[in-house]
Structure formats: structure tokens, C-alpha cells
Design goal:
mainly alpha
């Protein structure tokens, strides 16, 4: 397990998978081993195999929040955003306010084109004591997708130099302009904000 973690830290995911696969064959009932193996498969992009392994890595009676979070991430990558949020919400019941899970949940909302909700969740994640650079940069991404470039750069500067932060936001701007996927997500978020505003106005009129 330690050797596999070291390989993962060196971005040698294929080798980590091979080590953990052998360990899982020798210890097919060890949930910690299966959890590590499933996560390694996910990191290596072998999503369906990872999902199969992770189903065996914990039980409803003994759920593992980190396995649930990885299962959610896999579901998001496979396009099942609603299912992914179910995993994250269950993980948060076990580990309330865990920033890594909240960050994944925020990105799930972003992928589902609900950018205001994504921002709300990611701000909550970034406010947690254990929040790391990835959480803050995910928030910066969602802010930039909404056109809040100054705020995005401000959050980026918390971990990057001013020059790198500016370049990071500039890269996101370029990505949005060149990628139909991100442009669609941005447009979807704007549409949802307008719909929300119309609902608010309608409620006020009533």
C-alpha cells in the first residue's frame, strides 16, 4: 500500500494500479485494499472497472466517505451528475463539511450547468480549515465561468503569484472562448440565474 502511494505521488498511476491489483488478488476481502485499488483505477482513467471495485470496498453498514466521494467523481465523469451528488451527500453525512467532498459536489453542479449553486458550495468548501489549493482553484474556475474574472484572480492569488494567477484566469478565458462545452456550461448558468430571477419576481408579485 505504501509503495503504491509513493508511485501515485510520482504520477506513475499505471504502476500503482499494477501493485494494488496484485494486492487485491491476494486480499479480495480487504476493503482498505479494494478502496485503494478502486481509487487508483479511477486516477488511471479506468472508470467502469473502478466503479465495480469500489462497490465492494465498503458496505451500507460500514460506509467509507472517501470511497463515496470517489464513486461520485466517477459518476460525474460518466455523465451521471444526479447520481454523483447522491454519493457526495451521503459522504457529507459521514464527514460533514469535508472540503474535498464539497469541492467535488460544487464541480458536479458546475458540470450540470448550475453555476450559482456550484459557486455557493465551493465557497463553503474554501471556507473550511482543511481546504487546499485544489478547492480554491476550483472556486476560481467557477467564478471565471460566470464572468467574475476579478474575483477568480483574487482567489487564484491565494496560492499563486500575481503573474501566475493572472495567466491562470487568462487561460480560463481562452478555454471558455474556444470550447463549446465550457461555453455551454457558462450559458446554462446564466440561463438558470435569469430563471431564478424570474421566479423571485413572480413570487414577489404574488
Amino acid at each position: 500500500m505504501t509503495y503504491a502511494r509513493a508511485l501515485h505521488a510520482l504520477d506513475q498511476n499505471a504502476q500503482a494500479v499494477a501493485v494494488l491489483q496484485g494486492l487485491a488478488i491476494q486480499n479480495p476481502e480487504d476493503m482498505k485494499v479494494l478502496g485503494a485499488y478502486g481509487k487508483a483505477l479511477a486516477d488511471a482513467g479506468q472508470l467502469k472497472q473502478a466503479a465495480d471495485v469500489l462497490q465492494k470496498a465498503h458496505t451500507p453498514e460500514r460506509p467509507d466517505w472517501s470511497v463515496l466521494s470517489t464513486q461520485g467523481s466517477i459518476a460525474d465523469q460518466l455523465g451521471d451528475h444526479e447520481g454523483a451528488r447522491g454519493y457526495y451527500e451521503t459522504a457529507l453525512k459521514i464527514r460533514p463539511n469535508e472540503p474535498s467532498v464539497l469541492s467535488n459536489l460544487g464541480l458536479s453542479y458546475a458540470l450540470a450547468r448550475n453555476l450559482p449553486r456550484a459557486e455557493e458550495v465551493l465557497r463553503a468548501a474554501a471556507a473550511q480549515p482543511g481546504a487546499d489549493m485544489r478547492v480554491r482553484q476550483n472556486l476560481a474556475l467557477v467564478l471565471a465561468l460566470q464572468g467574475k474574472f476579478d474575483q477568480a484572480e483574487e482567489w487564484s492569488r491565494r496560492d499563486l503569484s500575481p503573474i501566475d494567477a493572472a495567466q491562470n484566469v487568462a487561460s480560463i478565458r481562452q478555454m471558455i472562448s474556444q470550447s463549446n462545452t465550457w461555453r455551454d456550461i457558462q450559458t446554462g448558468g446564466q440561463s438558470q440565474r435569469r430563471a431564478s430571477a424570474r421566479q423571485t419576481e413572480a413570487s414577489a408579485a404574488q
